[in-house]
Write a structure and sequence with these properties.
It is globular and about 50 Å long. The protein is mainly alpha-helical and 214 residues long. The protein has one domain: Serine Threonine Protein Phosphatase 5, Tetratricopeptide repeat, CATH 1.25.40. The chain is built from 9 helices and no strands.
């Protein structure tokens, strides 16, 4: 009897774990297709709720932060809208960072650094004249850290290429160099094998969109 009860509890635990994994995979699939502020707001809330039920896992916090970072980027021409999303995203990605073993989980750490770069760049968008010197170098530093801990991370290369492309030439921007970096990012994406469907995999379309620019 006790063995039967134990088996039932084990089965329930396995089913619950699978359902939670499916929830995360489903949300990331929605994120792959979501490009507008309203949709990202809804997803940020959904990832945040999921994080509340999976407090020891970094990915739900990571994705909630990524959604808020993307909202900040979408509002880059309307800086007054950005601050609450940047601040919330910063809080969420710091939580994700706190859940990593930074000496062992180098690939995961690289992904967190990418989002930290995006959040700091979003803070620049609030008011470039006021915040550029404060947050711009931080955004660059996190890109370099992401590349250092995982040189094969195509998202780190995408962000590096984006920065080179959009930075004015007088401040170190270089569109030709940006293209080289973005082509390297594309190659990294091509070389990747299928991994965890819920793991970070965004960026390929962003690379292609930027390469298509003149």
């Amino acid at each position: 009897m006790l063995r039967t009860i134990a088996s039932i509890f084990l089965m329930i635990s396995m089913l619950t774990s699978q359902a939670q994994s499916d929830d995360l995979s489903g949300l990331t699939q929605r994120l792959d297709k979501t490009k507008d502020v309203k949709g990202l707001q809804q997803l940020a809330e959904s990832f945040s709720h999921l994080a509340d039920t999976r407090k020891t896992e970094w990915l739900p916090y990571y994705y909630a932060a990524l959604c808020n970072a993307r909202i900040g980027w979408l509002y880059q021409n309307d800086g007054e809208q950005i601050e609450p999303y940047a601040n919330k995203g910063d809080e969420q990605i710091q939580k994700a960072l706190s859940l990593l073993d930074t000496t062992r989980q180098k690939k995961e750490l690289s992904e967190v650094y990418c989002v930290l770069s995006m959040i700091n760049r979003a803070k620049v968008f609030i008011n470039p004249m006021t915040y550029g010197r404060r947050y711009g170098p931080a955004a660059t530093r996190y890109i370099q850290l992401a590349k250092t801990v995982n040189p094969d991370n195509p998202r780190a290369l995408y962000l590096d290429g984006w920065e080179k492309y959009y930075t004015p030439k007088m401040w170190g921007g270089d569109k030709a160099k940006a293209k080289e970096i973005l082509l390297a990012a594309r190659q990294k994406f091509d070389n990747q094998t299928d991994g965890d469907a819920a793991g970070p995999h965004w960026g390929r379309q962003e690379v292609e969109d930027l390469l298509a620019k003149k």
